[in-house]
Amino acid sequence: MKRRELLARLGFPVPEAARIRVIVDTDAKNEADDQFAIAHFLLSPTMDIKAVTAAHFEGKAGTGDSMERSFQEIEKLLELMEMEDVPALRGQKSPSDRQLSDAARFILEEARRDDSRPLYVAVLGAATNLGAALRAAPDIGAKLTAVWNGGGPYPEGRPEFNVMQDPEAARALLESTAQIWQIPQNVYASFEVTLSELAANVRPCGKIGEHLFSQLAEDNLREFDPDFLLRAGENWTLGDNAAVAALLMSRFRGNWARRRAPRLREDLTYGDDPGGKPIRVCTALDVRMALADLYAKLTLIYGTK
């Protein structure tokens, strides 16, 4: 089925002038939250999703196949969502992969496309694919905005998972001419949910709802560690949905701080860079609005059993 046919089930049009181009770049098989963000992006009609691109998570997996696993998960999600016209593209296999991937090439080509609408690249994992595109064609930085889920809290910063997967790509992004909307760890970690909430609002919504819930519930059993303070046993963090929220919310709220791009030190904390470009750093997002929107879209489009 075509994506627009599924979105018609929402029952309302959106202004054409509000539609933006979006590339979703995701380490989809790293853990259980990327899938929710991918679904949310795809179900949002103001976002013209040009492609979903697969990112590696080799810093965690170290298996050589993490990008391919992400790619296979993206394809599975598109099948379960019944969206046959959204491209899924393979990305760089690792930080050291210097052969330009389909994902990096697509980012480059889409940035150069003659289209007056803004282009956003939502970076939900390692910035490797975008970094590869920027290295190959530095001029494209001026033609896109990176919505970057990554980096530790300001002002000091700290080692953060997405940056740890490829620090050099994060540095390339910070030093490029691309506009950056950064969503640091303390902000994306605020997207906390309970399994009961997801069981009530997501699991009943067709095959995709069942998959989203079941793979998270399985990860919760498999990965629980009493010493990992982020999880208490009945909760999870849908951190990647923060990137969707940043594009859905009004620009009126003043929930961004203007900063100079920091220098990323070897220990992945922030250092001052007097020559750093101005970037937008998110200070808060409306978690209630974003999650309610996801639940409503799943229900309207896929129904409930």
How would you describe what is shown here?
The chain is an alpha/beta fold and about 300 residues long. The chain has one domain (about 5-300): Ribonucleoside hydrolase-like (Inosine-uridine Nucleoside N-ribohydrolase, Chain A, Alpha-Beta Complex), CATH 3.90.245. It contains 13 helices and twelve strands. The strands form three sheets. Strands 3-2-1-4-5-6-12-9 form an eight-stranded mixed β-sheet, sandwiched between helices. The longest helix has 18 residues, at about 205-225. The two termini are about 20 Å apart. The model has no long low-confidence stretch (mean pLDDT about 95).
Task: Tell me briefly what this model is.
The protein has 305 residues and is an alpha/beta fold. It is 39% helix and 17% strand. The model has no long low-confidence stretch (mean pLDDT 96).
